């Protein structure tokens, strides 16, 4: 019977084989300009798509915008553990480990083929990953077995040299694949587009109460919330970008970026909110967006009778459906945005073109990296609708307390409560605040900029020592006051009064 290879070397061979496979796939995907064809990315994207909605919401609620990093880290740990197992079960024969590595290679290829944006060349990356993994595993297992029958110093040197070369090679390949996936071409395109984007307009005086603890009226691009299904940010160049507008229209259109920006560009301050934002949650931001009215393009194409929604698709395959009656409202100013706060859209916020619709939650309106727009009926279900969310997502009237914060300890005496309220595309009429279940007091409102943006509020109470709870509620211009009853985010957004408990010393 053949003596087994040392455990340490067998485990390392498994790890190195798996790491080399992932690095090779990442590099080939980057060289091909198809970062989503990397087996690691493809499997991660599939995990996101297949995860039950409650699990997704738990991940976002627990990890926020770091949820994708947590996913990749978890995948890496699982892959490493299985790679060690592959090595240990192959101490006498490399066949068991080769089969396990091969199974992972097939899984990567299946994940790539299952992506909505799949094309046949995308299979090159997982195939090359599989070959690299099997070759490295076989080579290191052969080198590792030299210790079985009496290892010489030359055998030991060969194993260490080969191992070092594999580790360095995998590291360089992985880093190169990541750099290529970031898309230097997209960065260059953003710089070239910069001169065509209008500068940012300062909000009117008194638009926020930042000195009292509210956010600034405009959210910086860096701080603007980002929630999407993209594990890697699509990198598109303006010279390659095309938008096809088709379906139930009289005249199908294919627009280049130049075609789009030759049309009149308008600038609008718009507040965007996430449908799964819990009561008092952080996923709401405001920016100045620069773009072309969606309504103008739809009228130019000619919408046919019976059409109900604009079904838009991202470069990474994500899709959503937006009600046409909303997009065609003359005063709605839904945009195909090309700029954000006086600069081209950042890559993570949809460069070169995204959709922005005031008054609708992002999951039914805010497609990033937009490449396709089909006028159709509600018979076609979009990405989140298939996962249990409502077909249409009008934003609910809500308010939030930003100061004081939960568990703050403040001096007794005058205490200023401050926060935000929103009711896009209706506008905020008033905000009421109370402490410890007492009478409601009408808060001071910041300057009203637009019914499509949030509005800041503040009010001062004189409080004695002890624990206190402050609550807020908003009323919109249609006379609707946000309800007290707490409802979960699924299927069309949370409801309820936000409250914060703090202490006065």
Molecular structure report:
The chain is 33% helix and 23% strand. The chain is an alpha+beta fold. A hairpin with a 5-residue loop joins strand 14 and strand 15. The chain is built from eleven helices and 19 strands. The strands form four sheets. It has a five-stranded mixed β-sheet with strand order 2-1-10-5-6. Strands 3, 4, 7, 8 and 9 form a five-stranded antiparallel β-sheet that branches. A five-stranded mixed β-sheet has the order 12-19-18-14-15, with no helix packed on it.
Could you list some keywords that capture this structure?
505 residues; alpha+beta; five-stranded mixed beta sheet; five-stranded antiparallel beta sheet; 11 helices; 19 strands
Which helices and strands, and how do they pair?
Blueprint: H1 7-31, H2 39-50, H3 53-63, H4 67-88, H5 95-113, H6 124-144, H7 153-181, H8 184-193, E1 242-247, E2 253-256, H9 257-261, E3 266-273, E4 284-293, H10 294-301, E5 309-314, E6 319-323, H11 324-327, E7 335-340, E8 343-344, E9 354-356, E10 370-376, E11 398-403, E12 409-410, E13 413-422, E14 428-435, E15 441-442, E16 444-445, E17 455-463, E18 466-476, E19 498-504
Parallel strand pairs: 1-10, 12-19
Antiparallel strand pairs: 1-2, 3-4, 4-7, 5-6, 5-10, 7-8, 7-9, 11-13, 13-17, 14-15, 14-18, 16-17, 18-19
Helix pairs in contact: 1-4, 1-6, 1-7, 2-5, 4-5, 5-6, 6-7
Quick synopsis:
This protein has 505 residues and is an alpha+beta fold. 33% of the residues lie in helices and 23% in strands.
């Amino acid at each position: 019977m053949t003596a087994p290879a040392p455990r340490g070397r067998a485990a390392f061979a498994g790890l190195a084989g798996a790491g080399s496979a992932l690095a090779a796939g990442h590099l080939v995907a980057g060289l091909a300009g198809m970062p989503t064809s990397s087996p690691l990315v493809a499997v991660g994207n599939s995990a996101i798509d297949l995860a039950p909605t409650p699990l997704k919401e738990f991940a976002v609620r627990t990890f926020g915008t770091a949820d994708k990093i947590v996913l990749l880290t978890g995948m890496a740990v699982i892959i490493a553990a299985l790679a060690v197992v592959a090595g240990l079960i192959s101490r006498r024969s490399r066949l068991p480990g080769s089969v396990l590595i091969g199974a992972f290679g097939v899984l990567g290829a299946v994940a790539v083929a299952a992506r909505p944006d799949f094309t046949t060349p995308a299979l090159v990356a997982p195939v090359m990953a599989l070959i690299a993994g099997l070759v490295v595993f076989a080579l290191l297992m052969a080198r590792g077995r030299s210790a079985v029958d009496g290892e010489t110093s030359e055998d030991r040197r060969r194993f260490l040299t080969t191992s070092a070369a594999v580790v360095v090679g995998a590291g360089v390949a992985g880093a190169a694949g990541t750099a290529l996936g970031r898309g230097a071409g997209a960065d260059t395109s953003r710089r070239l587009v910069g001169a065509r984007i209008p500068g940012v307009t300062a909000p009117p005086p008194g638009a926020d109460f930042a000195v009292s603890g509210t956010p600034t009226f405009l959210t910086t691009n860096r701080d603007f919330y980002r929630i999407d299904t993209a594990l890697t940010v699509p990198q598109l160049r303006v010279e390659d970008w095309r938008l096809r507008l088709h379906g139930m229209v009289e005249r199908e259109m294919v627009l280049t970026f130049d075609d789009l920006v030759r049309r009149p560009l308008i600038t609008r301050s718009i507040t965007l909110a996430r449908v799964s934002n819990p009561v008092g949650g952080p996923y709401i931001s405001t920016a100045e967006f620069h773009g072309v009215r969606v309504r103008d393009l739809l009228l130019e194409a000619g919408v046919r009778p019976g059409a109900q929604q604009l079904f838009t698709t991202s470069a990474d395959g994500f899709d959503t459906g937006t009600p046409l009656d909303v997009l065609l409202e003359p005063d709605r100013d839904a945009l195909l945005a090309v700029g954000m706060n006086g600069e081209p859209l950042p890559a993570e916020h949809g460069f070169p073109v995204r959709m922005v619709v005031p008054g609708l939650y992002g999951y039914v309106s805010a497609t990033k990296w937009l490449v396709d727009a089909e006028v159709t009926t509600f018979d076609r279900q979009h990405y989140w609708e298939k996962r249990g969310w409502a077909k249409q997502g009008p934003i609910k009237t809500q308010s939030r307390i930003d100061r004081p914060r939960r568990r703050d300890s403040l001096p007794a005496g005058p205490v200023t409560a401050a926060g935000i309220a929103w009711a896009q595309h209706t506008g905020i009429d008033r905000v009421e605040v109370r402490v410890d279940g007492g009478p409601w007091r009408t808060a001071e409102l910041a300057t009203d900029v637009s019914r499509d943006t949030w509005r800041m509020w503040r009010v001062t109470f004189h409080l004695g020592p002890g624990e206190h709870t402050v609550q807020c509620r908003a009323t919109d211009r249609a006379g609707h006051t946000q309800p007290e009853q707490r409802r979960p985010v699924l299927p069309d957004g949370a409801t309820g009064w936000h409250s914060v408990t703090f202490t006065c010393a």
